[in-house]
Design brief:
Elements: H1 16-25, E1 31-35, E2 38-39, H2 44-58, E3 62-67, E4 69-70, E5 81-83, H3 91-105, E6 111-114, E7 123-126, H4 131-137, H5 145-158, E8 165-168, H6 171-181, E9 188-190, H7 207-216, E10 224-229, H8 238-244, E11 251-256, H9 266-275, E12 281-285, H10 290-296, E13 299-302, H11 311-318, E14 323-326, H12 332-338, E15 341-344, H13 350-361, H14 363-376, H15 385-406
Parallel strand pairs: 1-3, 1-6, 2-4, 3-5, 6-7, 7-8, 8-9, 10-11, 10-13, 11-12, 13-14, 14-15
């Protein structure tokens, strides 16, 4: 399926007046189509998509979100959401079919934004590592249909002949995509962190609130509480956390984002029972009261196998909760910069993880990390990513329309 015509060239001289007017007053009531494969509560990419859509709408424009499915209660504050259902069963075929349907559905829109790699995008908000870079490390993957399909979608966005503007979330992505695809540097934009100010509530770690909220969760004052937040338990290393529990009989693990009965949770629950630590775990399901949960915990555990950003890491820091995580998480650099916990090097070693948790149990150490984290969380630039993304999207749409009018 071909893409809509899209002029990526320079502005014609006859269109200079229109372009200046667009930059001064903007194009009112532009129509934006946002595409994301799946919408569900608790996902970092999903929250970014909805919040950026709200911000673009607040700037005076129409925004419609397209997706293949909605799981659970997703609140979009009245923004229209259209479900383009697909018949495919595998993730790669579902994403490819959604790409085609989204392209067809977005013909009437002025500017098309993808939050997954899709064809014919004007702009991609990219939260994933490069598939081409992964295949380069392991060429045999190219033989598998899954990787070929994802690679084709990635190429449509990053190839030098593509016109898609790319918003990236960490420096490693910029280096990786620039090296893999030789994408023009001016098309790659690095955003600051995308956490919301509403998730910064370090004052909740005061003694009275902490005691009250622990009581609500069924926790005692002297319980040593670990917090894990994830919807992808294997990717985020939840099994590694479970394997560490037998070494700490006084530890209790809160798991937010998953119910014990979900199919993704079943292997984790089975592992916990086999290790005899099932009674040390509380499954909390999806939660929006993340700052409150962080006030009740003593350490945030996130030994992820892969995480482009790890927004929950930065949320922990700004709420004064010490962190133990891995260096391959995009926002792990903030743990080191803040002096807010421990960042483990690759490869993952269970003994090092256990040793880090031992350090986190020491009150003096944990208190120092917490104070440093709260101080670090006062920086304004930690909260500017979503607003900057919305401004870039609107500016890029204005430039596109100015070029069209010039022609």
């Amino acid at each position: 399926m071909g893409c809509r015509g899209r002029d990526q060239g320079a502005i014609a001289p006859s269109g200079i007046t229109d372009f200046i007017a667009a930059r001064l007053w903007g194009f009112p009531d532009m129509r934006f189509g946002f595409g994301i494969v799946s919408l569900f509560p608790g996902g970092g990419l999903q929250r970014d998509c909805i919040d950026i859509a709200r911000r673009v709408h607040a700037l005076g424009h129409d925004v419609t979100i397209f997706t293949t499915r909605i799981h659970g209660a997703v609140f979009t504050n009245g923004l229209p959401v259209h479900v383009l259902s697909t018949r495919r069963r595998t993730n790669h075929e579902r994403q490819a079919e959604f790409s085609d349907r989204f392209t067809a559905a977005s013909e009437a829109f002025d500017f098309i934004v993808g939050f997954d790699k899709l064809r014919c995008l004007d702009l991609l908000y990219c939260s994933e590592p490069s598939m081409l870079a992964r295949i380069a490390r392991n060429p045999i993957l190219r033989l598998l249909a899954r990787y070929r399909r994802f690679l084709d979608l990635e190429k449509s966005c990053f190839d030098r002949n593509a016109g898609t503007k790319i918003l990236l979330l960490n420096e490693a992505q910029v280096r990786q995509y620039g090296s893999a695809w030789r994408t023009q540097p001016q098309r790659l934009v690095l955003l600051p962190p995308t956490i919301s100010r509403s998730r910064q509530r370090p004052e909740l770690r005061n003694r009275d609130f902490r005691k009250k909220f622990r009581s609500i969760l069924g926790l005692a004052d002297n319980d040593w509480v670990w917090l894990a937040i994830c919807v992808q338990p294997v990717t985020k290393g939840l099994d590694r956390v479970i394997r560490a529990l037998p070494h700490f009989s006084d530890a209790l693990l809160l798991i937010a984002g998953l119910e014990a009965t979900e199919h993704k949770s079943v292997p984790i629950g089975r592992l916990a029972r086999r290790l005899g630590v099932a009674d040390q775990i509380k499954w909390l399901g999806h939660r929006e009261d993340v700052p409150e949960l962080m006030s009740a915990a003593d350490v945030f555990v996130h030994p992820a196998r892969n995480d482009t950003t790890g927004t929950v890491i930065l949320e922990s820091i700004v709420n004064g909760l010490p962190v133990v995580t891995m260096v391959n998480c995009g926002y792990a650099k903030h743990v080191a910069a803040a002096g807010a916990g421990i960042v483990l090097e690759l490869p993952f070693r269970a003994r090092s993880f256990i040793g880090s948790l031992d350090a986190a149990r020491q009150r003096t150490c944990a208190s120092r990390w917490s104070i440093s984290a709260r101080r670090y969380g006062q920086q304004n630039e930690l909260y500017q990513g979503r607003g900057q993304a919305a401004n870039i999207i609107v500016a890029a749409a204005e430039e596109k329309l100015a070029r069209v009018r010039a022609v």
